[in-house]
Amino acid sequence: MKVLVTGFTPFGVEAINPSFEAVQALSDKIAQANIITLEIPTVFHESIEILDKAIEINKPDIVICVGQAGGRFDITVERVAINIDDARIEDNKGNQPIDEPIFSDGQPAYFANVPIKSMVEKIRESGIPASVSNSAGTFVCNHIMYGLMYLIDKKYSKVRGTFIHVPFIPQQVVDKYNAPSMELSMISKALGLAIEAAIGNRGDIKAALGSIC
């Protein structure tokens, strides 16, 4: 089995992106699956093109894309991506799409097809805060999750996937008053546990693991 795990380049005013820092710290094997890691640009459309090529070349069974969600305190496994780009800031190449569909022939929304609640439960069992998220936003994180699930719908029907948001790491919040953060080693551990659960569970559990709002 192969699992492709992606993280983003830094964007905005940030000098580091904890998503790829945590991804590249993963073991080469998790639950006997080969782990392939990839850094993708924080750029609309280009990120999906690179992901598409990586799936075609590596032929993974599972794809998990990871991104930063500054302000969230826990690991959030995303349930759904919507077919809209509505960027509050520019991406790393100056693109700022507003109220634009990602793919004109795509569904209004795509849902993750991995056991997201089993993944959250596995992370929580280790003492790391985690929850199911029902909004991946409208920036490049939602964009890449939607792109992944669109590719699964149109080209790679046997692949399973989702997106995981991770918090800031401590060095990013030195000048951000009251901003939550999580140690990089803990984020990487959580991602490994999420991957284990995705590999080991086809069906999902029914449990109240979502956020309050």
TrEMBL record:
GO annotation, cellular component aspect: cytosol
Catalytic residue list: 78, 141, 165
InterPro entries per UniProt: Peptidase_C15, Peptidase_C15-like, Peptidase_C15-like_sf, PGP-I_bact-type, PGPEP1_Cys_AS, PGPEP1_Glu_AS
EC number: 3.4.19.3
Domain of life: Bacteria
Catalytic activity: Release of an N-terminal pyroglutamyl group from a polypeptide, the second amino acid generally not being Pro
Localization annotation: Cytoplasm
Molecular function, one GO term: pyroglutamyl-peptidase activity
Signal peptide: none
Pfam families reported for this sequence: Peptidase_C15 (PF01470)
Gene3D superfamilies: Peptidase C15, pyroglutamyl peptidase I-like
HAMAP family tied to this protein: Pyrrolid_peptidase
Protein name: Pyrrolidone-carboxylate peptidase
Protein purpose: Removes 5-oxoproline from various penultimate amino acid residues except L-proline.
Keywords (A to Z) from UniProt: Cytoplasm, Hydrolase, Protease, Thiol protease
Organism taxonomic ancestry: Bacteria, Bacillati, Bacillota, Clostridia, Eubacteriales
Record-level GO BP terms: proteolysis
Family label: Belongs to the peptidase C15 family.
Main location (coarse class): cytoplasm
Assembly, per entry: Homotetramer.
Protein's gene: pcp
